[in-house]
Fold these 2 entries.
Entry 1:
Amino acid sequence: MGLRRKKQRGEKIAAPVHTTGEPHGGTGDWAVELDGVRRQYGRGSGAVHALRGIDLKLPRGSFTAVMGPSGSGKSTFLQCAAGLDRPTAGTVHLGGTEITGMSENKLTALRRTRLGFVFQAFNLLPSLTVEQNVLLPMRLAGHRPDRRRAADVLARVGLGDKGRRRPGQLSGGQQQRVAIARALVTSPDVVFADEPTGALDTTTATEILNLLRSAVDGMGATVVMVTHDPAAAAHADRTLFLADGRIVDHLDRAPAARIADRMTALTAPVYVGAAA
Ligand SMILES: Nc1ncnc2c1ncn2[C@@H]1O[C@H](COP(=O)(O)OP(=O)(O)OP(=O)(O)O)[C@@H](O)[C@H]1O
Ligand SMILES: [Mg+2]
């Protein structure tokens, strides 16, 4: 699974690609692979085409940001990629396993063991301790809770001494660190993050983004993050731009100002066209 392989020093990780191209080997080389993914809501003249054919291959150990105007399909993309929603057409592979067409039970099991999730609202269980929250994915998957592993990931996110606290006794940034520890505890193929810094102040947000970055660089994690914030996207290897259900552009290792410029062009195409 994704996190097992530690990135060697100086080893080159292939840049994520979003075009259909030849993978380096079998499908198993990619952490995430979408082929011709479409998602339509409703039918006939009232149909909404939220995704209009997404082709995407993300290598293991990569950090990808997904940006786009409101309604461009970011949440739909994340949900289809994470097996929380089913595409109308196309296929999704996670860690080499095709999830399209999987039964609901198998999908649930896969999500618990092979995917990690980080949400804007942290989504921790307030009645459980920090350690119990981190161990939850293992418990839900019916595995024996590995307390040493929980201690290890909590130490990695800088909360080695907070295992016995309740989430309500922690700051927002610390709660998001717990959520990241929980997302990493099973060494998942992919961590999906939906606006993970949306509820945090700028300084705390930067800490959380650095943490996600170090999970990729230090633990070989694969992170896919939806964000509205160009400063957040600037921590990723690649930023994908969605517009009207399609990936229309990407920037690699771009500073926040360039990402913001590209977003402005996407959100005001008529104005930009008129000004050109
Ligand atoms: N359950 C649904 N039923 C009908 N239409 C939907 C549904 N969910 C999303 N849509 C539509 O699909 C399109 C894409 O929505 P989506 O939520 O993926 O956008 P988004 O990029 O995440 O937007 P935001 O930045 O506002 O969160 C929009 O036009 C939206 O109205
Ligand atoms: Mg959304």
Note: Residues 74-75 surround magnesium ion (ligand 2) (CB under 6 Å).
Entry 2:
Amino acid sequence: MLLKLLRQLTRAYGYAVFGIYLAAFGIAFLFVFIFPPATLALLFISIFGLLFFNALGFVLRTVERRWNRARLGKGLCPECGAAALSSVVVGAGEMRCGACDARHDAQGTWIKPVVHEPEPVQA
Ligand SMILES: [Zn+2]
């Protein structure tokens, strides 16, 4: 449950940070006309906030990877919990779940599935 929540948060993290910055831009734009020093303050908070968000993202990814490695070490899929793991590239440590098709590398990082473009239909 907690791992699932952490996984969703990690995967949506970039979009969430982008949303926060977009909202900050909107607020800063409004304050240009009302109280210009607030815009300047928001600018500097945003710039130094990048360091904070980058560090937070690193911590989230690291915790998720450690959690995934612990489950992979037990032979369980971190995504669905099935014991149906198989090695994709022998020696590279990449694991694929036979039940949900999720892939993880040796460090526990989830590998985004490649979605192939559909072939154009020839008339
Ligand atoms: Zn699975």
Note: Residues 77, 79-80, 82, 97, 99-100, 102 surround zinc ion (CB under 6 Å).
